[in-house]
Amino acid sequence: MVAGGYRKSIAFFIVFGACLVAIAVGLNIGWILLNWRESLLLFLGVLLFLVIITGMVLNTVFLVREIRRNEQHDNFINAVTHELKTPVASIRLYLETLQRHDLDEARRREFYAIMLGDSDRLLQTIEQVLRAGKSKSFLHKGQVTSVDMRLLVSDCVALTRLRYNLKPAQVRFQDEFPQDAPVTVRGDAEELRSAVMNLLENAVKYSGDSINVELRLRPLDAGMLAVQVMDQGIGLAPAELKRVFKRFYRVPGTLGARVKGTGLGLFIVKAVARRHGGRAWAASPGVGHGSRFTIELPLS
Ligand code: ADP
Q1: Which CATH class, in words, describes the domain spanning 141-298?
Q2: Is the minimum distance from the CB of 125 to ligand 1 under 6 angstroms?
């Protein structure tokens, strides 16, 4: 409903802007035809009209951008509220059941496991929002350690399999470094973990039913390493490859829009890569053909 309203007002501003430009151009041409002798005035008039038209175009562009940004903020608030409310409601329901009924030990253990899963989800959302808030700050000295990336990514792969109940063949880990070579990066282990987890979780989330994900750890030239996460999921159109890294941005109108999310994950991935002296980027052969997300980091 809200999105529909915004789209209507965007259309209104575009049509309004286009009409104003057309009227201004018409007036300008008429005015030139009537006053062609008075060349100085003509020149000034043309200049003034150009200024007015530029102003109107800029104004329309600015308005449309603002409306889009508001729309994304609204979507974000809705998504975060949902992500916070659902696990709390679920935990509450299980606690009430435990309080009211005498359940056997096995059932109780099952409920505890579900509640732990829900509280993990809650913590994840909160951490995501906090991380997005501090994404522009620099790494503090105290946070920087020597991080074993081989260990870190294999932990992330194992956690993803566990969290989504997947087989090893569905989320594979391929280490392309020579077996004994150390693969270390100077940085904040928690941030790097959250960036890799965001990529793996997206690969699973945006794969639909057939999950086929691979994480590759590979050496690059000039002392860099790449963490690549590839999936055979819904893929991305060329125009979306950069946009998906913007804060709050979620690709509209696809299967992806039905998947719950806040639009913060890739923004965090990019910010973490930058803070570690690297970069993050996406590639995809097109919608429906899977995607590949890469984080490049300097080796220590
Ligand atoms: P979220 O997943 O919470 O929406 P992200 O910042 O992680 O936020 O991703 C932004 C958008 O990029 C997603 O909404 C989705 O449309 C798109 N996207 C991310 N990862 C993938 C992927 N592996 N395949 C296809 N689309 C993706």
Answers
A1: alpha beta
A2: no
